[in-house]
Backbone:
């Protein structure tokens, strides 16, 4: 800030805002967020479109990750290595486990790759050479997201919720499982629940995001709307839920989050 006179205007101009990335798995969510992005510019890298601009009070980059762990890892690596991103939020939908019902929001506190198995060389689920199976999120960022989720849910009137049997959606915090598999059978969901009784959701990207952010030492958080119960009707619930509910929920939550 050399030569700054100390006026409010100058100070605002010189303060470097920490850039936040919002990574969506689903195009519908990304489109909703893009509406609120001002001064939007698009940069193409590795077949992805990175949208930079201002979102609420934040300098932001929005991008679609595509689906699965590798796609998410590539996307987040680019954000951290080439876009100067200092915080990462991942949003998407997920299958609910345990108490998590369709319509609930799950904010991760730890993430694990349920399809990682290098046994007997390493304990099952441990990511080789990390000595870790569960990757913790950034507590502050996740707490802020949880608060934003609670206030957004309270203010949302989603006319289609009753169709999904959603009475009062809840915000939950806990373990999220990730793997390169759309879990759509009751036995498979039960097996995951048995292996991880505390798990609240299963999806296909979060733990990969966690591993990349761990490598770079960058704070991150993962927010999921529960779109299905990872059982035999998962594929049916899924498409309708995204269109009717999830994208609007996510946009409302992230608007609440980025407003401050
Ligand atoms: N028909 C969709 C397919 C999405 S794949 C399309 O063409 O775009 C599923 C996406 O939702 C992934 O991003 C994953 O993270 C999440 N997801 C939702 N329910 C899931 C479940 N039961 N098992 C695994 N991933 C799930």
Residues:
């Amino acid at each position: 800030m050399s030569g700054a006179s100390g006026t409010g205007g100058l100070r605002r101009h010189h303060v470097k805002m920490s850039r936040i990335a919002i990574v969506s798995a689903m195009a519908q969510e990304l489109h909703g967020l893009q509406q609120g992005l001002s001064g939007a510019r698009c940069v193409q890298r590795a077949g992805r479109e990175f949208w930079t601009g201002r979102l609420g009070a934040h300098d932001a980059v929005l991008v679609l990750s595509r689906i699965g762990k590798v796609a998410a890892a590539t996307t987040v690596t680019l954000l951290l290595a080439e876009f100067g991103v200092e915080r990462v939020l991942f949003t998407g939908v997920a299958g609910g486990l345990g108490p998590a019902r369709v319509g609930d929001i799950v904010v991760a506190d730890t993430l694990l790759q349920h399809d990682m198995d290098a046994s007997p060389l390493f304990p099952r689920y441990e990511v080789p050479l990390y000595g870790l199976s569960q990757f913790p999120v950034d507590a502050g960022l996740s707490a802020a997201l949880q608060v934003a989720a609670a206030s957004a849910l309270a203010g949302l009137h989603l006319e289609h919720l009753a169709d999904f049997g959603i009475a009062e959606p809840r915000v939950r915090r806990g373990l999220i499982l990730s793997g390169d598999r759309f879990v759509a059978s009751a036995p498979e969901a039960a097996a995951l629940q048995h292996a991880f009784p505390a798990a609240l959701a299963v999806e296909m990207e979060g733990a990969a995001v966690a591993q990349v952010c761990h490598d770079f030492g960058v704070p991150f958080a993962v927010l999921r709307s529960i779109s299905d119960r990872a059982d035999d009707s998962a594929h049916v619930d899924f498409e309708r839920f995204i269109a009717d509910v999830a994208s609007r929920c996510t946009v409302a939550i992230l608007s609440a989050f980025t407003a401050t």
User: Anything to note?
Assistant: Residues 1-14 have pLDDT under 50 and may be disordered. The chain has one domain: 3-258. The longest helix spans residues 234-258. Residues 25, 67, 92-95, 182-184, 202-205, 227-228, 230, 234 surround S-adenosyl-L-homocysteine (CB under 6 Å).
